[in-house]
Amino acid sequence: MLKTIKNYIYDKDFRILIINNQLNINNYKQVKTIDSSFIEIEYDNKLLTVRGRDLVLTKILNDELLIEGIINKIEMG
C-alpha cells in the first residue's frame, strides 16, 4: 500500500484529463503560447496544442494546469 501511495505522490508521467470543457494537464514542462483560441504546452520535449474559443488558464501550478473554454481540437506531437 505504501508503494501505491508513493507512486501517486511522485508520479511524473504526463497526463491529460478532459471533463466538461475543462482540460486538466499534469506534469507539463512549459506553457509556450497563450491566446483565447490557441494554447501551446511543452511536455516531454513535445508540444500539446489546444484549439478552441474563450480558452483560459484557470489554474497554473508547477506541475498542473487547468484550461477552460470551448475546446475544439487537441493535437499532440
Structural class: mainly beta
> What form results from the Cα inertia axes?
globular
Q: What average pLDDT do the residues reach?
A: 90
Total of DSSP H or I helical runs spanning 4+ residues: 1
Task: Please provide the ordered H/E string of secondary-structure elements.
Answer: HEEEEEE
The helix content, as a percent range, equals 10-25%
What low-confidence regions span 5 or more consecutive residues with pLDDT below 50? none
- Oligomeric form: single chain
**Radius of gyration, in angstroms, nearest whole number:** 13 Å
Major beta sheet summary? 6 strands, antiparallel
**N-to-C span:** 35 Å
**Number of DSSP E strands:** 6
Strand content: over 45%
Q: Strand arrangement, largest sheet?
A: 1-2-6-5-4-3
What is the strand and helix layout of this fold?
Blueprint: H1 2-9, E1 15-19, E2 22-26, E3 30-35, E4 38-43, E5 46-60, E6 64-76
Antiparallel strand pairs: 1-2, 2-6, 3-4, 4-5, 5-6
Describe the structure.
It is globular and about 45 Å long. The mean pLDDT is 90. The termini are far apart. The chain has one helix spanning 2-9; strands at 15-19, 22-26, 30-35, 38-43, 46-60, 64-76. It has 77 residues and is mainly β. β1 (15-19) and β2 (22-26) form a beta hairpin. The chain is built from 1 helix and 6 strands; from the N terminus they run αββββββ. It has a 6-stranded antiparallel beta sheet with strand order 1-2-6-5-4-3, with no helix packed on it. The longest helix has 8 residues, at 2-9.
